[in-house]
């Protein structure tokens, strides 16, 4: 796999740089653009790691849907989403937390040696077989998850709609119910 | 009859349900549905005690996660005696309460709580293993809390109830721990002292210590006595039933029940004796400095419980139990007699306000006098002398130092009870217009204390009979000392001396001018701890600041810290 | 296993049916949300067919979801007619919870967890006022971060073991990668349980959720997480257990002190108490081979009592004790008794069971902390009782008749578990082996 | 440094960077983006695992994680919009009403 080191290095560098861009961007709109770059660089990394299916998914789902959704929301917010600058305590907290994580994970992983690479069939067909056999349950469980996401998005958005259209009918129904229960 | 008695905790439940459902509907008769419960309990217990024998109920594997998860109830002579005491005092208190609570809007609720208490107490007494004991043990604590905080609009009742809960929680914790650490199969109380169980972690010493802590919390001994004086915020019948005669004696009962275990742990026994004695002396002293009538009697209860603990601690559990038996009668009498005056004075409880008012209530006067004489141990004519002398005698024989301290302590007993009697009943009346006679409410109160008067006089003569009856559950016991005897006479002389001095002192006219004694406060250190705890909890809850960034910081740092600790210290 | 998946399928189907029927006919009374009930019953029945480890999980979760459905008609939401959505989310959340609790590999656990977490967030957001939105947002963000950690752990486990299954003790011992992964996965699930350093968002969400939904949010996540963590601990061995013991003990301390400060706010107190109970579950999970059994039992018991308390409080935006009728007052008192561990309520038996295993496996200090946290909880739970009972008058309104079934079912569950704790214990026990 | 080590280090770095971003940003949407970076870091690790172990199941897992991230983003953005759309300059720390 070491013949891939060069491309991987480039991909990783871009991914890290764009991630830093997301963190440091002063306006959410820039952060979203950095996230787009980040997402595409990850797709490239996935491709290099011969996870073709995931790479495609990353481009279509992530860059195509999620990041665009972020952009869309940013534009919906007033003034295009200005952001207050980070205070000193925030920066300090960020350094402590981020540094702590790096130290902890490095300490955890430093002692370990990565297992030797095993070759296996990672083609699209193999992934398809896997999706419909070994990880079928998890795959099917994403259906209720997406249903929850849909309902959630609708409900949370409608929460702030002014008067619902069905209000008068509802009132009648409510009144009848109260009478019935008396 | 023992078979029926093993289910005695059910007896008051029908009354509880009926009263809770509002039967009878007429408010004047609220509580009448509950009256039968304690009477049935008394009758069944007495018949069973006379009949002797024992009966047990067991449902194995009820709580499969416990070392002994069976439901075990055990009715033997010891439980029958305790249930007879419970039934007797409860029956009196129920009738008394009909008068005392006649005008209270919460009368129904009061009787429901009372029924709950009697049921829990009966279950406590019948418990055959630690799991069942815990049910009753906690149940009486809860009913006690509900009854202390009964008049929730009066200042201090809720905090008094919470103090009782906190003290009880310490005891519950000890008992919980005992129930969870005994080796498998060792839950039954009678087997705790067997070889196999005493070999568990910590051995007999740890188990005995836990039981002692539990008992001390329930019986207000040692540093855990702070809650009992404040518990007087509850209605007076409650003070008589729960906080004098029965619940607070539960600690003594449990120690008597498991006395074989104590014999395996001599150091714990000695600690029990020492703490009991120290509590007796300290509480007697504190009682002399009380400005509140009921609190004065409450400290007396703590002191007498100290005598019982000392009796158990010096290796004479029967004397402790005997004193529990007579004390239930005369201490309930003292409280209920006091309650008549308090009720007649419109709920006033401070000694300055009650000064001299007792003379207008004949039953109360005679009741309190008989109770006081029993308390200081007048030989031959009162029950207290028999049992208290037995404790002092046993202590003199086994731990002479403790015996002498207990003997001299009787002087203090005379002092405090003489002071209360002198101020309320013998001093010239401070304000006789404060007295309101209400015959319809007073009648049940007056007549209900008559049985207690009789009991306070004659029950002592039952000592030797009880000793024979209880030889089954308790094993062989030393004989009781003959009455009258030298130590008894000495103790009475000291007590009477204290009594007379106190009465003389408080009847002087100068004393009336200076009634503003400062009350000794038992709960200062508890309040300090509680304040610190609440302050800590308030500052801790401020950490939950509501700011998302801080939450994120906390979570991320926690992840890093746990990873570091777990992975790198490996 | 197939029965578990069938149960999940039935619940999802129920959600769709509820959405189609109730959403369509908005003139229907709000009780129409009860259309979902038969699906819950069928799912529970299917759950009984599942292997012993999981039958308790499925049945308990269905019970929690069912009582939740019964309470939906009195939803105190910002937009009142969201009854259908609330009902559907309850069913989907139950399905996700079963997916998490019954997961046979880590990926299933992750997807189930996310389904449960997102429906919980949305249910919290349904509550009234900006408070609910704010709490939901905090819960979501913290949940997303813990999900990221969990997935990172999953990646490490895959690297270390080459499989998606729960790693075994041998695998954990042989490779630090796997150990780090397991710890991260454990902490991700601990977030659902609301253990101490990860409880922040959950606490606020529990406080601000609508009362009729709060019970479900609090207990479904605990139940599912207890089962999933139990499986992880059983498989991965003591490494995770020791962390859980200390995290659990700290959680008990934190929750107890926090609850003591809430003299005036019943909802906040109940939220803190949920944290304390999570601590007991965590402590149990870390306590040796019998720990997961005890934790499952505890979680099932907690579910019943939390549902009872919130069934009694449902229909009121702010809990006013005086407005409860006698029936709900008694139900609330029973729930509070059980939460505080007064025998013979199930809460007490559960606590006792935890103490037994903790003494055996977690050591005296952790046991003492648990004892203290357990017994002193009466100080905050029973504080409202004198007021509560004094407020009961026979002639007052009984409250809303629509609440009766929910209160009744929850009360029956609590009483039944109190009288016959052995049944739930036996069901949970097999999950230990 | 091996290729695997490089990718592993990158994943760790991205995870930490994401968490720093979640702490630095005060705009709710930007904060959610930082969290997306964390999720991506985890996904990179999973894909690395698939590659190193030759495990197609792990690749499927990575696909499913994409779905999780999408669902998370949808709800998160919905909440952020509902909570902050009236604020000219949104600041998540202002929403601290539920506390204590």
Overview of the molecule:
The complex is a heterotetramer of chains A (182), B (570), C (433) and D (100). By secondary structure, chain A is mainly alpha-helical. Helix content of chain A is 74%, strand content 0%. Chain A has seven helices and no strands. Chain A is globular, with a radius of gyration of 24 Å. Chain B is mostly helical and 570 residues long. Chain B contains 28 helices and two strands. The mean pLDDT of chain B is 88. Chain D has one domain: Helix Hairpins, CATH 1.10.287.3510. Classes of the chains: A mainly alpha (182), B mainly alpha (570), C mainly alpha (433), D mainly alpha (100). Chains A and D meet through helix 1, helix 2, helix 3, helix 4 and helix 5 of A and helix 1, helix 2 and helix 3 of D.
Could you give the topology of this structure?
The complex is a heterotetramer of chains A (182), B (570), C (433) and D (100).
Chain A: H1 5-24, H2 28-48, H3 52-76, H4 88-110, H5 124-131, H6 136-158, H7 167-181
Chain B: H1 2-5, H2 13-20, H3 36-51, E1 55-59, E2 71-75, H4 77-100, H5 107-126, H6 130-148, H7 157-181, H8 195-198, H9 203-218, H10 227-230, H11 236-245, H12 250-257, H13 259-264, H14 266-288, H15 293-313, H16 317-344, H17 351-354, H18 362-376, H19 383-398, H20 400-426, H21 439-448, H22 450-458, H23 463-469, H24 471-474, H25 486-507, H26 509-513, H27 524-543, H28 548-568
Antiparallel strand pairs in B: 1-2
Helix pairs in contact in B: 2-5, 3-4, 4-5, 4-11, 4-16, 4-21, 5-6, 6-7, 7-9, 9-12, 9-14, 11-16, 12-16, 14-15, 14-20, 15-16, 15-19, 15-20, 16-18, 16-19, 16-22, 18-20, 18-22, 19-20, 19-25, 20-25
Chain D: H1 3-24, H2 28-53, H3 56-84
Helix pairs in contact in D: 1-2, 2-3
Instruction: Determine the CATH topology of chain D.
Output: Helix Hairpins
Return Rg of chain D in Å.
17 Å
Helical stretch count of chain D?
A: 3
- Low-confidence runs of chain D (pLDDT<50, min 5 residues)? none
**For the residues shown, what is the average pLDDT of chain D?**
89
| Unreliable stretches covering 5 or more consecutive residues of chain B | none
* Count of extended strands of chain D: 0
Largest sheet of chain D: none
Average pLDDT over all residues of chain B: 88
Helix/strand class of chain B:
mainly alpha
The number of helices of chain B is 28
**Residues in β-strands, percent of chain D:** under 5%
CATH class of chain D: Mainly Alpha
Task: Tell me the CATH architecture of chain D.
Answer: Orthogonal Bundle
**Oligomerization status of the protein chains:** heterotetramer
Tell me the total number of β-strands of chain B: 2
Percentage of residues in strands of chain B: under 5%
Total number of domains of chain D: 1
Q: CA-to-CA gap between the ends of chain B?
A: 64 Å
Tell me the radius of gyration of chain B.
24 Å
Which strands sit side by side, in order, in the main sheet of chain B?
Answer: 1-2
């Amino acid at each position: 796999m070491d013949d891939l080191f060069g491309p991987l290095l480039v991909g990783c560098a871009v991914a890290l740089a764009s991630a830093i861009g997301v963190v440091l961007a002063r306006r959410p709109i820039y952060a979203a653009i950095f996230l787009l770059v980040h997402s595409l660089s990850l797709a490239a990394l996935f491709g290099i790691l011969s996870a073709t299916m995931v790479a495609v998914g990353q481009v279509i789902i992530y860059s195509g849907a999620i990041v665009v959704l972020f952009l869309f929301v940013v534009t919906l917010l007033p003034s295009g989403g200005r952001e207050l600058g980070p205070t000193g305590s925030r920066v300090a907290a960020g350094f402590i937390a981020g540094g702590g994580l790096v130290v902890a994970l490095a300490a955890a992983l430093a002692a370990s040696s990565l297992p030797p690479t095993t070759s296996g069939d990672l083609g699209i067909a193999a992934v398809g077989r896997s999706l419909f056999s070994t990880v079928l349950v998890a795959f099917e469980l994403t259906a209720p998850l997406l249903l929850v996401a849909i309902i959630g998005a609708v409900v949370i958005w409608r929460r702030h709609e002014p008067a619902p259209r069905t209000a008068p009918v509802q009132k009648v129904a409510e009144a009848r119910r109260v009478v019935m229960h008396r | 009859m023992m078979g029926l008695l093993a289910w005695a905790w059910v007896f008051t439940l029908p009354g509880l349900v009926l009263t809770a459902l509002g039967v009878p509907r007429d408010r004047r008769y609220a509580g009448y549905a509950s009256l039968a419960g304690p009477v049935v309990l008394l009758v069944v217990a007495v018949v069973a005690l006379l009949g002797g024998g024992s009966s047990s109920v067991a449902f194995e594997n009820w709580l499969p996660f416990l070392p002994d998860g069976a439901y075990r109830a055990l009715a033997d002579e010891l439980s029958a005696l305790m249930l007879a005491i419970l039934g007797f005092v409860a029956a009196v208190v129920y009738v008394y309460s009909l008068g005392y609570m006649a005008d209270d809007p919460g009368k129904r609720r009061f009787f429901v709580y009372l029924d709950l208490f009697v049921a829990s107490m009966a279950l406590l007494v019948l418990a055959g293993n630690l799991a069942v004991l815990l049910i009753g043990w906690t149940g009486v604590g809860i009913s006690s809390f509900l009854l202390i905080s009964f008049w929730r609009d009066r200042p201090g009742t809720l905090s008094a109830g919470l103090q009782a809960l906190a003290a009880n929680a310490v005891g519950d914790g000890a008992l919980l721990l005992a129930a969870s650490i005994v080796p498998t199969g060792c839950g039954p109380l009678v087997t705790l002292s067997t070889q196999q169980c005493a070999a568990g972690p910590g051995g007999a010493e740890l188990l005995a210590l836990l039981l002692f802590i539990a008992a001390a919390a329930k019986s207000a001994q040692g540093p855990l006595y702070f809650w009992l004086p404040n518990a007087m915020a509850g209605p007076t019948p409650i003070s008589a039933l729960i906080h004098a005669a029965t619940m607070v004696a539960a600690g003594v009962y449990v120690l008597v029940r498991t006395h074989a275990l104590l014999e395996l742990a001599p150091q714990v026994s000695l600690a029990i004796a020492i703490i009991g004695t120290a509590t007796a002396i300290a509480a007697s002293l504190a009682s002399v400095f009380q400005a509140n009538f009921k609190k004065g009697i409450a400290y007396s209860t703590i002191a007498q419980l100290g005598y019982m603990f000392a009796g158990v601690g010096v290796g004479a559990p029967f004397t402790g139990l005997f004193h529990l038996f007579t004390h239930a009668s005369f201490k309930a009498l003292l409280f209920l007699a006091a309650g008549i005056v308090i009720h007649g004075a419109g709920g006033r409880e401070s000694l300055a306000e009650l000064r001299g008012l007792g003379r207008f209530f004949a039953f109360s006067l005679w009741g309190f006098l008989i109770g006081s004489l029993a308390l200081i141990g007048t030989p031959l004519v009162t029950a207290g002398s028999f049992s208290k002398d037995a404790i002092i005698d046993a202590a003199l024989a086994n731990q002479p130092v403790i015996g002498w301290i207990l003997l001299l302590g009787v002087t203090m007993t005379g002092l405090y009870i003489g002071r209360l009697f002198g101020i309320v009943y013998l001093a010239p009346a401070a304000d006789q217009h404060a007295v309101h006679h209400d015959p319809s409410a007073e009648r049940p109160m007056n007549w209900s204390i008559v049985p207690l008067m009789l009991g306070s006089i004659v029950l002592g003569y039952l000592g030797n009979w009880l000793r024979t009856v209880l030889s089954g559950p308790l094993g062989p016991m030393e004989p009781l000392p003959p009455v009258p005897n030298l130590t008894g006479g000495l103790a009475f002389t000291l007590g009477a001396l204290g009594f007379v001095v106190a009465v003389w002192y408080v009847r002087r006219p100068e004393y009336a001018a200076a009634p503003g004694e400062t009350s000794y406060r038992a709960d200062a250190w508890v309040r300090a701890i509680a304040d610190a705890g609440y302050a800590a909890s308030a500052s801790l809850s401020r950490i939950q600041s509501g700011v998302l960034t801080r939450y994120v910081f906390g979570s991320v740092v926690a992840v890093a810290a746990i990873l570091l600790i777990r992975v790198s210290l490996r | 296993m197939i029965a578990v998946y069938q149960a999940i399928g039935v619940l999802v189907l129920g959600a769709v049916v509820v959405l189609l029927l109730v959403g369509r006919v908005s003139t229907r009374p709000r009780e129409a949300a009860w259309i979902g009930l038969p699906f819950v019953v069928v799912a529970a029945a299917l759950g009984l067919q599942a292997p012993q480890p999981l039958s308790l999980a499925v049945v308990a979760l269905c019970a929690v979801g069912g009582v939740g459905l019964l309470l939906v008609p009195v939803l105190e939401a910002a937009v009142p007619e969201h009854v259908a959505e609330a009902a559907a989310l309850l069913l989907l959340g139950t399905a996700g919870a079963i997916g998490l609790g019954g997961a046979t590999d880590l990926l299933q656990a992750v997807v189930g967890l996310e389904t449960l977490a997102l429906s919980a967030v949305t249910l919290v957001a349904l509550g009234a006022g900006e408070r609910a939105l704010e709490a939901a947002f905090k819960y979501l963000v913290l949940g997303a971060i813990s999900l990221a950690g969990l997935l990172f752990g999953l990646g490490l486990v895959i690297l270390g073991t080459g499989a998606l299954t729960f790693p075994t003790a041998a695998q954990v011992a042989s490779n630090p990668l796997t150990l780090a992964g397991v710890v991260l996965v454990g902490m991700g699930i601990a977030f659902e349980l609301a253990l101490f350093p990860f409880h922040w968002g959950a606490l606020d969400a529990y406080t601000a959720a609508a009362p009729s939904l709060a019970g479900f949010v609090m207990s479904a996540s605990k139940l599912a997480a207890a089962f999933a963590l139990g499986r992880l601990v059983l498989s991965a061995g003591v490494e995770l257990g020791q962390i859980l013991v200390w995290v659990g003990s700290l959680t008990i301390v934190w929750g107890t002190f926090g609850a003591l400060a809430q003299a005036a706010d019943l909802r906040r107190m109940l939220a803190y108490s949920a944290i304390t109970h999570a601590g007991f579950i965590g402590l149990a999970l870390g306590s040796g081979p019998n720990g997961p059994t005890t934790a499952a039992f505890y979680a099932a018991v907690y579910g019943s009592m939390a549902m009872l308390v919130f069934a009694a409080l449902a229909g009121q935006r702010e809990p006013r004790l005086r407005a409860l009728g006698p029936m709900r007052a008694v139900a609330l008192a029973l729930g509070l008794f059980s939460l505080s561990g007064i025998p013979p309520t199930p809460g007490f038996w559960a606590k006792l069971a935890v103490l037994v295993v903790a003494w055996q496996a977690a050591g005296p200090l952790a046991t003492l902390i648990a004892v203290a946290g357990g017994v002193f909880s009466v100080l905050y739970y029973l504080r409202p009782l004198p007021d509560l009972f004094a407020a009961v008058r026979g002639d007052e309104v009984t409250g809303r008749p629509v609440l009766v079934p929910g209160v009744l079912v929850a009360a029956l569950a609590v009483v039944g578990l109190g009288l016959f704790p052995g049944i739930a214990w036996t069901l949970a026990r097999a999950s230990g082996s | 440094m091996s290729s695997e080590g490089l990718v592993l280090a990158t994943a760790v770095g991205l995870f930490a960077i994401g968490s720093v971003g979640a702490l630095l940003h005060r705009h709710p949407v930007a904060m959610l983006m930082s969290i997306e970076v964390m999720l991506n870091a985890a996904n990179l690790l999973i894909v690395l695992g698939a590659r190193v172990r030759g495990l197609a199941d792990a690749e499927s897992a990575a696909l499913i994680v994409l779905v999780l991230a999408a669902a998370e983003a949808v709800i998160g953005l919905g909440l952020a919009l509902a909570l902050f759309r009236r604020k000219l300059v949104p600041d998540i720390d202002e929403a601290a009403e539920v506390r204590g």
